[in-house]
Amino acid sequence: MPSVIKNHFVIDDRSSKSYVSSFGSVWNLVTDDVMGGISFGELSLEKLNGVDCIKMSGNVSKENNGGFVQMSLNLMQIVPFDASHYDGIELKIYGNNEIYNLHIKTVDLFRPWQSYRSTFQTKSEWQDTRISFSELEPHRTGVPFRKDKIKRIALAAIGREFDVELYLASIKFYSNS
């Protein structure tokens, strides 16, 4: 069960040592093959430098109108997740010095290509990265972001051809107050 630590709500801290998050839902991999693309990806459970994590690996190809690999987590159980008391998302990540995206979907979005997005840079060392909700850019929607209506969070390799190697040790909502 997820825990609330002062100014944080843990979505996943990888303590399950499985594909089940601390929130109780399961991490999934989605690639552009759902629309005819040929990008490849996989999820694996790892221990990197003594840290339990989930790894997304593969490669992004723009062939056949493709261009993404993503790991996603459903936060909507019966009702959307209400993150009103939080200011953003904090990730503990390790990567291959590439740029990745955070995608958030709310119940207001119905098309698969719609989301609220922000990019983040990885390093080949563990780092804590904060992405404020105010940094999110609407993608192919005019609907304003509502942090009280979150249904899904995804980490994506998208938009250009590159090798994917992203490790996630924790993801949580954070508050500045």
Structure description:
Helices cover 0% and strands 51% of the residues. By secondary structure, the chain is mainly beta. Strands 1, 2, 4, 5, 7, 10 and 13 form a 7-stranded antiparallel β-sheet that branches. A 6-stranded antiparallel β-sheet has the order 3-6-12-8-9-11, with no helix packed on it. The chain is globular, with a radius of gyration of 15 Å. The model has no long low-confidence stretch (mean pLDDT 95).
Secondary structure class reads mainly beta
Mean pLDDT: 95
Helix content: under 10%
How many helices in DSSP terms?
Answer: 0
**How many strand segments?**
13
- Residue stretches low in confidence (pLDDT < 50, at least 5 long) are none
Q: What's the end-to-end separation, in Å? A: 24 Å
Taken as a percent bin, the fraction of beta residues is over 45%
Summarize, please.
The chain is mainly β.
Observed structural traits:
single chain; 177 residues; mainly beta; 6-stranded antiparallel β-sheet; 51% strand
Summarize the SSE layout with pairings.
Layout: E1 4-5, E2 8-12, E3 28-31, E4 40-48, E5 51-60, E6 68-74, E7 88-95, E8 99-106, E9 115-121, E10 127-132, E11 137-139, E12 150-158, E13 162-174
